[in-house]
Amino acid sequence: MGKGSSRLVLGATSVVMLIAIFLLYAAHFTSDISPFDSWKLHLSNWNGSLGRRKVDKGVEVVEPLEFMLRRLVRGEDRVQLETTGFSCHTDRHSEVCVTNKPVMLDNNALTAYIQSSQGQVKHMVQPYARKEDEKAMKQVTPVQILTRNASSPVFCHFNHDVPVVVFSTCGYTGNLFHAFNEVIIPLFITCYHFRSHLQFVITDFKPRWVKKYNQILTHLSNFEVINPVKDGSVHCFPGAVIGLKYHDNLALYPTEIPGGYSMFEFKHFLRETYNLKIKNVSEIIKPKLILISRPKTRTFMNEDEIVDMMEELGFQVDVATPNRMSNLEKFAEELNSCSVMVGAHGAGLTNAVFLPVGAVMVQVVPLGLNWASTKYFGGPAREMGLHYVEYKIEPEESSLFKEYGPDHPVIVDPKSIFLKGYNVARATYIHGQNVTINLVRFRESLQKAMKFLGH
C-alpha cells in the first residue's frame, strides 16, 4: 500500500509539471508582447519606479519617470513627447532630445535606438551647449538617434533601471568659465530634479576633466560615468536625455527649470558637494580678500603694490595663482572663507560661485571689454547674492596705450576693432593687453567693497 501511494504521488507530480511546462511554453510562444514590451517588463524603472522620492508622513512617494522626463519639455515639445514618446527642443545655444520610451544605446556606434510612434526618426545631436559657436562644435562628436521597430529583437549587454543623460566634455571645457557655463550649470538644470537616479554617458570623454569635476558628477548621479569609447557595449535604459538645457551665461532661470531652482539652489548644491561651511559673509570675522593672479594675459603689472595697498586697508590678502586653482576641491574651500574676490576680467572670476552670500566681487575691466565684463560676470554676480564692484581702467592703465599711442582706434574706438571680427578683437583686448592699476583710483573701489562688508 505504501509503495502504491508513492507511485501515485510521483505520477501526479509528473503530470502537474508537464502541465506547467506546457502552459509556460504556450504563454511564451503565443504571446503578442513585442521584444520592446518584454524588455520593459524586465526594467523595473521603465515607468519611473526609481524617480524622485518625496517623504509624506514617513511614507515614500514615488514620482514616475515619465513625469520627470515630461518636466524637461514644454508647449508643443511636451505634446509631442506625450503622444509619440520622443521630442527634441532646439534653440540658439543647445539642442536637447528626450524620450520616455526604452532606449538601446550602442556606445560603439554612438547611436541611440528609440521606440517612437512618430514613424521613422533619424536625428543627429551634438550634446554640448554652445551650438552657436561653429569652432567649438567642430570638436563635438554627434550622437545619432534612430527609431527601431517595436517587434525588432533587443540586444542589451547591460540593462539599467534609471534613465541615461548623454553629454559631451569637448568644446571649450578646459576653461573654468566654459566648464561651468556649458556643462556644470546645464547639468544641474537638466538633472537635479532626478535626485541622482540617472546614468551619465560622457562623449568626447576627457579623463582629467572628469577627475576635476568628479565630486559634482557623483552628487548628480549615483552611478559611475560611462566612457562610450572605452566601454563599447550596448546599454538599455527606460528613458533618455541627449544634450543639456542651457539658459544664459552663468545663469539659471527658475521659471524654466523643473523644480524652479535658482542660482541660490545651485550654490547650495555646491556647498553640499564640496562640504563648504560658510553660507553668509557675516560669519567671517576679519575681512579676507583673494586676488586672482593672471601670469600671461591681463596681468596686473604692479601686483605687489596692489597687495600692499589691500593690506593697508585692513584686508588679509591671499594671492591665487593658476596652480593653486587647479585643485578645485581645495580652492573651493579657500574661496568659501573669503569676503572679497578681486580679478581682471577672465575665467578665474567664475570661482565666485564658491563665495558666501554677501561677499563682494571686484572686477577689473580692461580696455575694450566693458560689454563682456558686465554680461559674463557683472550680472551673474548679483544673481549669486554677491555685491558687485566694477573698476574700469583708464586707457593709460592699459599696456595698449603705450603700444598704439593715445589716438589710435584701439584706444579711442574699440568698437571699430570688434567690427573687424572677434578674432582680431580677441587678439588685441583679450590676449594682447596687461594692466598697471592706478592705485589712487583703485583704492576707492576697495573702500567701497569694505563698506559692503560693514567695515
Which structural class do you get from the secondary structure elements? alpha/beta
* Helix run count: 19
Query: Mean pLDDT, as a whole number?
Result: 88
Task: Report the span from N to C terminus.
Answer: 104 Å
Query: How helical, in percent, are the residues?
Result: 25-40%
**What characterizes the major β-sheet?**
6 strands, mixed
Give the low-confidence spans: 1-12, 18-61
Radius of gyration, whole Å: 28 Å
Question: Got a strand count?
Answer: 18
Sum up the overall morphology in one term.
Answer: elongated
Strand percentage, roughly? 15-25%
Which strands sit side by side, in order, in the main sheet?
Answer: 7-8-6-5-12-9
Describe the structure.
It is built from 19 helices and 18 strands. A six-stranded mixed β-sheet has the order 7-8-6-5-12-9, with no helix packed on it. The protein is of the alpha/beta class and 455 residues long. Helix content is 39%, strand content 18%.
Q: Quick recap of the structure?
A:
The protein is of the alpha/beta class and 455 residues long. The chain has helices spanning 2-30, 35-42, 65-70, 75-84, 134-137, 176-191, 207-212, 214-220, 228-231, 263-273, 303-312, 322-325, 328-336, 370-383, 399-404, 409-412, 414-418, 422-430, 439-452, and strands at 53-56, 59-62, 86-90, 95-99, 103-106, 111-114, 122-125, 143-147, 158-159, 164-168, 199-203, 234-237, 240-242, 288-292, 316-320, 340-344, 360-365, 387-392. The protein starts with a helix and ends with a helix.
